[in-house]
From TrEMBL, chains A, B:
InterPro entries: CoA-bd (IPR003781), NAD(P)-bd_dom_sf (IPR036291), Rex_actinobacterial-type (IPR058236), Rex_DNA-bd_C_dom (IPR009718), Tscrpt_rep_Rex (IPR022876), WH-like_DNA-bd_sf (IPR036388), WH_DNA-bd_sf (IPR036390). Residues 17-56 bind DNA. NAD(+) binds at residues 91-96. It is found in: Cytoplasm. Belongs to the transcriptional regulatory Rex family. Modulates transcription in response to changes in cellular NADH/NAD(+) redox state. It comes from Cohnella xylanilytica. GO terms for biological process: negative regulation of DNA-templated transcription; response to redox state. NCBIfam families: PRK05472.1-3, PRK05472.2-1, PRK05472.2-2, PRK05472.2-3, PRK05472.2-4, PRK05472.2-5. The gene is rex. This is Redox-sensing transcriptional repressor Rex. Keywords: Cytoplasm, DNA-binding, NAD, Repressor, Transcription, Transcription regulation. Pfam families: CoA_binding, Put_DNA-bind_N.
Length: 225, 225
DNA sequence: TAGATTGTTAATCGATTAACAATC
DNA sequence: TAGATTGTTAATCGATTAACAATC
């Protein structure tokens, strides 16, 4: 029954969304849920949900649905959230501090355990029980504390530099909040959280009487040079 | 030449990424750029870039490439960033304050001009020159100040409630940072910035010796009930 | 048994990429 | 003219959805 199919990024990206809602259901005491229910709540096609889950195993029961706590357990296994995952964060500006104070990860065994900043005036300050370290210590601390994921919340101009440091330190995954495209060698995964792009692209849909904007909407004069 | 083709969300989402890099090029004094150059820098297929841009007009010149400042102008027109866009933000926690202090939007005519919080102890405080207002005033202020985009940075449990208020106030687009799926009627666009999902999905790729995880990786015992 | 819902195949839809004539 | 690069068509690839037999 073990099919060798590559799991697409889109599928993996939906798993945490399922997990989050299942946790809610569990807290409300709901014991069973159908793909229909999930689909309605999460605005997804039920067939897609069944297909996503079926990549990893037969978690449901025909005619019944999915056992909520069993499915939670399985998704946490799939995402490898059933064991501790250490995270480091670089850049203690507003956003960096916001993330340090965010506690969602805790429940999922994911925890920011080291914080860095290049600014000497920030070094030594304390954020949510963590003392800010100088960026120079990044490599040593990552190795020492078995850190596998890095979060980048520095200005765009410094982001690639920090990413390179993370890569050199042997990190396996990077979540980048800086508004710039980062490059890393094979084997290091980069997730881009580009909310400026999310926000600016929203503008496109504003005051759009003709919902389908086409070539006609922009006047194409000959190119100025 | 006006083809009636619907522009996909993926295409629109890439436009701000192009715009950002073009602005960089412009600052460096670069006057012309090819889809090849753009593709290398942004990690995208050159053909895709040419196709994206061609949806909106003939912006390039064969054998030469794209004029940087002309393309900037055109993309800003397409995204409707050539005119002021007023934004309101609800939720002045760490993340909300981080966004208020973020100034990227300014350059693009997009500006947070009103901030709200349900917590009376936050009301009246000042963030980046904006006085925090009680959430009750949201409807009136949105109408009064011609606000078309709303940003939600409240806890998940309150997010839908805030979204409903925004919708009732006549807002056209919402950028949601709360880790929950929001619903809105047709005509109101919701962009989800789910960085907890981005982070948790990153875990999937950690310590993955077999890069393609399949049914085999998770032990499928019979379902417990 | 009758009703419900899964897992999975096949059909559809959409997005990306390759290739190349047009042309600067 | 020769070299470069666009705009666009056709080919490919991948993801979503519909449909349904299996079965609880």
């Amino acid at each position: 029954m073990t099919k060798q199919v590559k799991i697409s990024e889109a599928v993996v990206r939906r798993l945490p969304v399922y997990l989050r809602y299942l946790n809610e259901l569990s807290l409300s005491g709901v014991q069973t849920v159908s793909s229909q229910d999930l689909g309605e709540k999460l605005d997804l096609n039920p067939a897609q949900i069944r297909k996503d889950l079926a990549y990893f195993g037969d978690f449901g029961r025909k005619g019944v649905g999915y056992n909520v706590s069993y499915l939670i357990e399985k998704i946490r296994q799939i995402l490898k959230l059933d064991r501790p995952l250490h995270v480091a964060l670089v850049g203690t500006g507003n956003l960096g501090r916001a993330l340090c104070n965010y506690n969602m990860y805790l429940k999922e065994n994911m925890k920011i355990i080291a914080v860095f900043d290049a600014d000497p005036s920030k070094v030594g300050t304390v954020i949510n029980n963590l003392t800010v370290q100088p960026t120079e210590e990044l490599g040593a601390t990552v190795a020492e504390k078995d850190i596998s994921i890095g979060i980048i919340t520095v200005p765009a101009a410094e982001a690639q530099n920090v990413a390179d440091r993370f890569v050199a330190a042997g990190i396996r995954g990077i979540l980048n909040f800086a508004p710039t495209v980062l490059r890393a060698p094979e084997g290091v995964r980069i997730h881009q959280t580009d909310f400026t792009a999310d926000l600016l692209s929203l503008a496109y849909y504003m005051n759009n009487d003709n919902e389908d904007t086409t070539r006609g909407t922009v006047d194409d004069e000959p190119m100025a040079d």
